[in-house]
Amino acid sequence: MRVVSLLPSATEILYALGVEPVAVSHECDHPPAARELPAVNRSRIDADATSGEIDSQVLAAEDGAVYEIDLEALRAADPDLIVTQGLCDVCAVDQVVVEDAVAELGLETEILTLDPHSLEDVFEDVERVGAAVGAEGRATELVGELRERVAAVREAAAGADRPRVAVLDWTDPVMTAGHWVPDLVETAGGDYGFPAAASVPREWAEIREYDPEVVVVAPCGFDLEQIGDNADDLTGRPGWTELSAVRDDRVYALDGHQFVNRPGPRLVDTLEHLAGLLHPERFERPPRDAARPLARTVA
User: Fold this and answer.
1) Of 26, 106, 199, 203, which sits most exposed with the smallest number of CB within 10 A?
2) Which residues contact 250 (CB under 8 A, 6 or more apart)?
3) pTM for the predicted model, two decimal places
4) pLDDT per residue as tens digits for the range 83-131
């Protein structure tokens, strides 16, 4: 079967099921073999800009379209199945853009749309993709392995003090992470004060009033270096040094691009990383290429 994946999490699911796609999105970089595949879309956003500049570019995007399909690349891929998403048109190519491209090219292909909002939804998506590519057995096995790891974290975190946690999905403007993040934080042994179906812009006063004891900075699409480059979005705000998390040196950068923002199998890695940040006395700390302390201030 010839499969095109238009989002990184779906690419990771496919590889975990033993299926190598014939083409992917421009952001698909895990596992490393995905980087060698042709990309069938392009972004209209400068991903290397500051968080504030990226926000402005997204708001100014013509017709709200952040991505465009490379029609010739999609034609060459000649897919039997395209996996896309309906979750967020800023994160990846959405279903409507894909449907329009398929219609324009006259392709005979199935479109599978993923729209997860919780860890359980992600597990169900693994099984849906497995069914679509004829890998039902491997999908069932993989989901079982992931559930065992989740249960192990939940058991180890039971009875621990639960710190107030804020996970930031963007820093200018400040946005708190939604979707599966509240579930991950609660399972890892924290209290999450910003449950929501999606990431939500917040007034800085809301963050100060909540006074998180742990802050995890994981902007969508940002790696650790880019998080550090944009740290003054937070450290320059009034009252930053008064937050409990800052006073206790419990502010961390967590690679949002590779972990927090990808609803695929590695969300369980993210759960384990969060548990290590919230309860280092009970769990291993995450490796430094995944998460590290964020400085109080920027020189």
Assistant:
1) 106
2) 163, 213, 214, 215, 244, 277
3) 0.89
4) 997 754 444 566 778 888 888 999 999 999 998 999 999 999 999 999 9
Report long-range pairs for 133-136 (Cβ below 8 Å, ≥24 apart): 133/1, 133/3, 133/14, 133/17, 133/19, 133/81, 134/1, 135/17, 135/18, 135/19
Q: Cα(275)–Cα(252) distance, rounded to whole angstroms? A: 13
Q: What is the pLDDT of residues 22-75, one digit of tens each?
A: 999 999 999 999 999 999 986 655 456 687 776 565 565 555 466 788 999 999
Give the chain's domains with CATH numbers: 3-115 (3.40.50.1980), 161-293 (3.40.50.1980)
